[in-house]
Amino acid sequence: MRISEMELISPKSVLECLSYLQDTDRDIRLIAGGTDTVVQMKEGKGRPKTWVNIKGIKELRFIREEDDGIHIGPLTTHTDLIKSRIIQYQAQALADAAWEVGATQIRNMGTLGGNLATASPAGDTIPALYVLDAVVELQSIAGKRKVPIEDFFYGPRKTAINRNEMITNIIIQPQKTDEVSIFQKLGPRRAQAISIVNVAIRLRMGKEKRECIGGKIAFGSVAPTVIRAHKCESLLRVSPLTEEMITNIGKVAWKEVAPISDIRASAEYRRDMAGAILERGLYRLMKRWENR
Ligand SMILES: Cc1cc2nc3c(=O)[nH]c(=O)nc-3n(C[C@H](O)[C@H](O)[C@H](O)COP(=O)(O)OP(=O)(O)OC[C@H]3O[C@@H](n4cnc5c(N)ncnc54)[C@H](O)[C@@H]3O)c2cc1C
């Protein structure tokens, strides 16, 4: 289908948008910032008859603190995340991850909802959402349902979103005062590059120097979906996070990951780099904790 033959609808409310999605006979697809969809369209993939442009739905762009966590609208851009004091102080890994997405233009256009729905194993915000215990709210005309982030991805480009649903909210658990988090990325170059390996870490710290009470680690780009590194996590509590302990945890990372080779890197390189980037992340996290 030629681009000039496509229809573009721009609903002004979630309800109006959901009414279009309800029409299952229609070949329809949502577009938010367009940074993934336009690239795919140019490659000849994903050319529906009708585009539903949701960028004008103001009720989907917000960051606010609620009793059950921090609520983030799917149209929140990466730049919005970076600028938000709530995210900077209570979800550091997500602020870091948003900062690592593309370059300024992509961060201004690209949205959190789009990054999630694209479901790339290399999507930078996703590991951060794992360690922040995100829950994705999906809405259809029939109502809302909540899907924990670890159940949201079925594989590359495959998610729990049904044909008649859209993401309307992402709820994350803020860091407590004894917690600290970070996101680290290894890409082929500084900007505009998709991750070769990325990792998010969230730790709960004790009263003693470098004492860690527990934490979560999530790797991206090393398996068909983002994965938790449970073996590494179990070592976090064994002893203070000394240099030796951090090296040991890094060495365990290769047992957790099952990467593939592609144009960006070989599986072996990814496996080695997973350990290296985890070590780097833990060092930087200790610095962040000590300088808080
Ligand atoms: C040059 C360049 C560099 C990039 N660099 C990075 C990078 O470093 N890291 C990274 O992670 N990504 C990167 N990306 C990918 C992209 O920018 C991000 O994934 C971005 O967050 C996508 O958001 P969007 O709003 O543009 O999504 P869109 O392109 O508008 O949509 C993407 C998908 O999400 C669906 N969708 C959007 N909103 C919703 C919703 N509310 N509910 C249900 N489905 C929805 C759309 O239907 C579509 O399938 C890059 C892209 C480009 C072009």
Give a verbal description of the structure.
The chain is an alpha+beta fold and 292 residues long. The chain has 3 domains: 3-53, Uridine Diphospho-n-acetylenolpyruvylglucosamine Reductase, domain 2 (2-Layer Sandwich); 58-172, Uridine Diphospho-n-acetylenolpyruvylglucosamine Reductase, domain 3, CATH 3.30.465.10; 179-290, Enolase-like, domain 1. The chain contains 12 helices and 14 strands. The protein has helices spanning 14-22, 37-42, 78-83, 85-90, 92-100, 104-109, 112-118, 125-131, 149-152, 230-235, 243-256, 267-290, and strands at residues 7-9, 28-31, 50-53, 63-66, 69-72, 135-140, 143-148, 153-155, 158-159, 166-172, 179-186, 197-205, 212-220, 227-228. A hairpin with a 2-residue loop joins β6 (135-140) and β7 (143-148). The site of flavin-adenine dinucleotide has 29 residues, from β2, α2, α6, α7 and β10.
